[in-house]
Task: structure prediction
Amino acid sequence: MTLGAEPPSGSLAGILPGALAVLGHADSADPLGLAGSLGGVRQVVVLLVDGLGYHLLPAAAQTAPALAAVLAGSAGMLRELSSAFPSTTPTSLVTLGTGALPGAHGVLGFTVNVPGTDRVLTHIDWRDDPPPRTWQPVPRLLEQAAGAGVSTVVVGARGFAGSGLTTAAYGATRYVGTKDVARSVVDELRAGTQLVYGYHPTLDTTAHLFGIASPQWASAAAEVGRLITHIAERLPRDAALLVTADHGGLDVPAEGRFDLDADPRLAAGVRVVAGEPRARYLHTHDGATDDVLAAWREVLGDQALVVRREELIEAGWFGPVPPEHVARIGDVVVVCQEPAVVLASAHEPAAVAELVGFHGAITPEETAVPLIAFRT
Result:
């Protein structure tokens, strides 16, 4: 792994600008060139399948005929994109929703330290503290499009309506809470909504709980295939479906697990622990950063890259980072390279240690995501 690693091609950040360009939104850039391949389309569905990494498509295709057809070249158009770093859901959703890289939008991890405090903000549990529009200052593309007269909607789980993360990513865009994403997406298309964004979480949840190699994950992949087929077969004339993901993932064996709270060498000098198991943010006590760097490098060896945050910022891993967002990143950043994780048993729910599948680092298995385009 090198600090200047380039993404495979294109970025998750380009999908919504491209979809809006397809719909003729004059102020929208089209970094992925979608308007050229989807000319004449008047309705677009963007379906984000949580955890459907590009390198997981062959495994998913074993139980999902829709994805098997894509890989065989007989359906859809497939290309490889890159998520942002860290490769985690909150960061990627806001990158998608704003078209901006994490340094700019400030949702820089699954959990981050609130600067000036010892508090750790978990973005998926976030409501209104800190205020979403202050914490995440970049304009939301769907909200902007709605203000310009494009009819838009977000379709997702009821529990995320009005959450801090939803506001950070999509703003005041109309939200439809549902248990049946496929049906609600099709209903919106039939009602004439121009840009429909849908989110499906089950594949990622299953990977975490049971592992990507599990029969449960294979069943969840079959469900994804049915979801895609249901929408694709019901696309109105002059409509397109774009399927993507926020990250991929990998299974981590028992021997690849470190627990910073069970090893005094790793706990020494650390004031606040944030991030997640494959991309740790360590906020150190005053004067302790050098010692923390040395200890973590010695203990983890080639299992992880252990660096100062300034090195990653300079290398462009987050995109440009304004001064007000720098302190959200740990003084020391630990990025797992091998199938390994750094647990924090005294800082996180006990269930985290029981997970099988993980993501968050910068391996291709985690950062490469698909963009599959279907059109009538």
Observations:
- The chain has a mean pLDDT of 95.
